[in-house]
């Protein structure tokens, strides 16, 4: 099959076929004839590289529509395949946002730099310029700010345009002010540059305003270019901010050593305040309301709250008139969740809703997803809860009286899309209404518990989104085989505008084929679980292929989504290009099913049940497909997946023989407190062993590679060193790669970690030496592609 290798600097004439026919050695056998082994080439590695997210996006350029809404929601724009598209749903129109050819020519002329119409170097695009006609946009290019009038065809340099916001700055709704952090205090500046002043002035070291806890952020954020992140929320009328003050003064420190600072010289130490599960001292926070007009700093009365999940800081909402702020409180153990109403003028608070449970109480199906709480103009509150065993919507009065349960049944509400208060209706995404329980469908229900209707009734996975204002949805519907077909839908599901319908022809030409969506039985013999199976490139059913379990165990992430992309898109596909059969499994203890399914991991953060489910699923697949060699099974994963990888080799040495564990937390008893205390519960002598890989070190029989970032302030690198120490005590062989100068996600070195992972699996599962191919540093990822963890 032909491959486009120009981007990867591979000589096609020197490259051989993508997969060499032959059998790799089976577990316990010795293959002496090299002709029987799979010998990969630079062509295979180049093809694997094309499967990764940054390159895959180029092969399916219109697969993702990410709308940028106008202020009133009446229109939106998006970028697709190098073109900028403007959509006005009420008019059922979709057109180029501007004349790309004319803009390219004009910008080339005024900037003195050649610009191509299909590769416009535009950043910080502003589609609604105050005081200008709707056809005027502003953007940055070539270290300057420009204004383009599509009607006049003029491109002029703008000298007095407000400085574009930096990623750690927050603009007020009226665009008059910008809030930011400086030396631990919250400041504001006017967009016209005439004013700048502090709203707080008493910050101290480790007791500052608007920031985040040091653990997992202090070293990482600067390495990612985030200088001083501000977490705050403007009031609707742009006069006040709600933020917090974090107290970390009494916390113990952990020390990271930067061995190879960029300017040379001695190693540099980085000290991070990092508590552990069970420690009495934890980071705490207080809420503060800051007034831009009076410069008043109002401290909300009450005891400081233990700062659990970092996403707690995102749990605050202003009312539409700016007279009320609602905040979520979660107890340290995660088993109590409260919605509180706060008076921003006095600081007085009232608890409206309290929910408790024997395990953690979640405010949404995912840790990383904003709480599914919505506030109506009527004062009523839409609340998401798993109290009946599923994830459903409830309606409360402004004073916290439950008015009714809005949705019910053996399925869950995945996301709230939009609310029509006049018609008393809410649109949402639901899981569990299709044969595949993970497929998302668009639904609608009356707020008062009346009519329920499915807007979509197909087997497509609907990743829909809606503007803050507007009476439509942007539906991005896909399968594992078909990229997202995007359309604008009206209230009844009618198509208002067709947006994009990409195909996979270029991806298939690069060797890709869609994975198989499968159902298997969990290790208990009766619970259905789901996963994905990728066939190797150049698949031949007469051969037998080694298996790689590409893993993340949960409890907060779904690994095997039913749509065209997920958090790990490209990684499994790249392994398939290297001649592996690749499996991803969502075992018990992971989200998006029932509360009982999720709680299988509670008290067992080591996820022994889910690991048993992986083994059961792969063995079942092996019985279905003779071409799966379940005597040669490897595993790899990042962060929680790194822990899971090592645990697989240590607790199932009869099944897993090769593993690459990236950034693995191999001892959760000394990891971030919220993660353990929320998801595992109290650590006892009975359940402690489930948290610690080192206790099983003597069981290692296979080949294990540990890869860690030297400056990982999330999963500190001594986690892997402790496992290495235990393996040395057990006289077991282990390989380790410590990457200098990088954090948890290996930023700037991820391409190297990727290639070393491939090499290890090729060397020990295929039984041959990998080619001398070098993976290039990754270009910026597409907007939808997120780091695995």
From TrEMBL:
<dbReference type="Pfam" id="PF00326">
    <property type="entry name" value="Peptidase_S9"/>
</dbReference>
<dbReference type="InterPro" id="IPR002469">
    <property type="entry name" value="Peptidase_S9B_N"/>
</dbReference>
<dbReference type="GO" id="GO:0008236">
    <property type="term" value="F:serine-type peptidase activity"/>
</dbReference>
<dbReference type="InterPro" id="IPR029058">
    <property type="entry name" value="AB_hydrolase_fold"/>
</dbReference>
<dbReference type="InterPro" id="IPR050278">
    <property type="entry name" value="Serine_Prot_S9B/DPPIV"/>
</dbReference>
<feature type="domain" description="Dipeptidylpeptidase IV N-terminal">
    <location>
        <begin position="166"/>
        <end position="483"/>
    </location>
</feature>
<dbReference type="InterPro" id="IPR001375">
    <property type="entry name" value="Peptidase_S9_cat"/>
</dbReference>
<dbReference type="GO" id="GO:0006508">
    <property type="term" value="P:proteolysis"/>
</dbReference>
<dbReference type="Pfam" id="PF00930">
    <property type="entry name" value="DPPIV_N"/>
</dbReference>
<feature type="domain" description="Peptidase S9 prolyl oligopeptidase catalytic">
    <location>
        <begin position="569"/>
        <end position="766"/>
    </location>
</feature>
<protein>
    <submittedName>
        <fullName>S9 family peptidase</fullName>
    </submittedName>
</protein>
